[in-house]
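Fold this sequence, please.
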Amino acid sequence: RVGLLLFSDHVELFVPPRRGRRHALRIIREILFFEAKGRGTDLSGALERLNRLLHRRSVVFLFSDFQAPSYTRQLGLTARRHDLVALPLTDPREETLPNIGTVRLEDAETGELIEVATGDSKVRKAFQATVRARAEAIGAELRKAGVDRVSLRTDKDWLPALQTFFKNRETRAGISV
């Protein structure tokens, strides 16, 4: 049985878990053709809704960049109720600022515009430090909540990371497939 919950600043689509090839194809189609209506990210609200909708203990794969405010409490509740696996998505283009002078950047979620002097090495170093600190904070939040984690990058094949994760999980559980 496979289901799907897609969200932005609110839950935009919920497909209840079902079995079958036709249902699996529907899930794939929904993922491929989904266009978010909201701009923000309400991870806490999505997890809260998931906990209300799923009555049986389930394996939940949570794909996100985890750039959302105050989701730690709901993350812990979901991890206690379900087998939660976090899949943080990172894009290397968002980890460093290129030295290209002053640029105007728009926050994709809020629409806020800011000017950044990328020619200043202090600005670039501060940006990288902030990115690293945020990644470490996300890792700490996931560990604290007892959530398994598979880090995925947009510039690398995702399959080896998932294979390694499942192989390690199999070893930890003492299961052989």
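The chain has a mean pLDDT of 93. Strands lie at 2-7, 11-18, 59-64, 83-90, 102-106, 113-117, 148-149, 152-153.
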